[in-house]
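Sample intake sheet
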Amino acid sequence: MALYPKMLLAATAGFVAGGLLVYLVARPRMKAMTKLITLRTAPHPAQRYPSALVHVPDGFDPRSPFAVLVYFRGWNSCVSVIAASERGKCRPDGPTHQHSDIVGQVDRSRANLVLIMPELLVEQDLSDPGTLTRPGALKALIDEVLREHVGPHCGCSLIADSPSRVLLAAHSGGYHPTAVVLDRGGMSTITDVLLLDALYGDVSSFERFVRGGGKLVSIYTDGVTERRSLEIAQSLAPMGQVVADRSTGLPSPEQWASRVLVHRTAYGHSLIPLHYVEPWLSTRGLPLIGEVRPS
């Protein structure tokens, strides 16, 4: 009789473990989704183009911790081309633009994240953030994308507070919308910023972000982005974990892990995004697709 409670406990533990195993094995595998969407929270709602591109990688698990990556493209293009794996056009009768393979790089990183690419002014040489200057605008945009587009795709309820982390990346003229949403976008979970030959201005915004605990990577070529990258590294150096790397190979894992990394690249301005988004994502410590972690 003394063995009975132990047997019952063992049987109960086995049942629970077996049930958990069945649950983990049976967790639904989300299919990839990439689509252009129209948003009420669009940065430029008067445009006749889609408001944003959203991508969910194959195997995305919204029931585990996940991140959101918001990517701001540079001038004179559109999100559909920048996201793609080959050069393309924003309109049938328009010029062909350089692609950045952002969707492909997100997929290859295996990060459990949602990619959101808000559309700026299409094929214009402007960094106008539009309605993103409104307080809380980034949070409202993320909320609308997750609630009305990603949530229905995965059959779950998602809101702006659902992701555990938000990351921002920008190429070239996308620096200004990035700085604007850092300052007033309403998202307190932004942990990392990647600037791809993009530190043309708003230096104080990026400094405040780092001083508040964020991590900054600035990849630069020469001229303005070189000067300002080196200046921000010097300004933040007393904080420690600041690396100014003038070599042109890919950063080492230790360099990627720094609080601030400014790194010279040998790639041409328009080609830089093709080479740095995937390794940056892969060194952020993000939850990976296929990992099982409690939320």
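Comment: The CA atoms of residues 168 and 272 lie 16 Å apart. The chain has one domain: 30-282.
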